[in-house]
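Methods — Computational structure assignment.
A single polypeptide chain was analysed. Its primary sequence is given first, followed by the predicted tertiary structure written as C-alpha cells.
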Amino acid sequence: MRIFLDIDGVMVPAKSWQRPELLNDGFPSFSSKATYVLQRLISEDTIIMLTTSHKGNHSVEEWKSIFKNRNINIENLQRLPTNVDSLSRKDEILRWVNINGISDDFIILDDDKSLNELPTFLKENLVQTSALIGLTEEHLEIAEARIISQRTSLIESEM
C-alpha cells in the first residue's frame, strides 16, 4: 500500500493562533491522534510518499528520523520531487501518477482543498482532514474502508 502523506494540517494541526511545539530535531511534534492513526495504517509493505511542502527540506533519512522521533517507524519512505514549478498539490500528485502510475492500493491523507479536483480514480482514495484538527480516528475508519474497497475491486477484476 502507498500513503501519500501531507504533514501540516494532517500530522500537525495548523492553528494560526498557536505555535506548534518543536521537538529536539527542530520539527513540530505530531498530534497524538494523528500518530495513532498513521501507525495503524502502516504495515510492512507500506510506502509513505511525502507530499508536504516541507518534503525537500530534509533528506529521506532525516525524514525517517523525524518520524522515528515521533514513535512512527517507516521502512519505505519516498517523497514527491521538489516542486520547482510551483504546482498545486493536485498537480504535483497528478504529475507523479502520470509518470509512475499506481499499481498498488493507496490513500491520500491531506487537507489541501485543491485535491477535490483530482480525477475520480484518485479522489475516491482521498481522506481529507480539517487543517485545524488534523488526522483523527474517524479518518482511520474512512481510510480503512477505502483500502478494503480497492482490494475488493482488484480481486473482482482478476476473476
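Note: The chain has one domain: 2-158.
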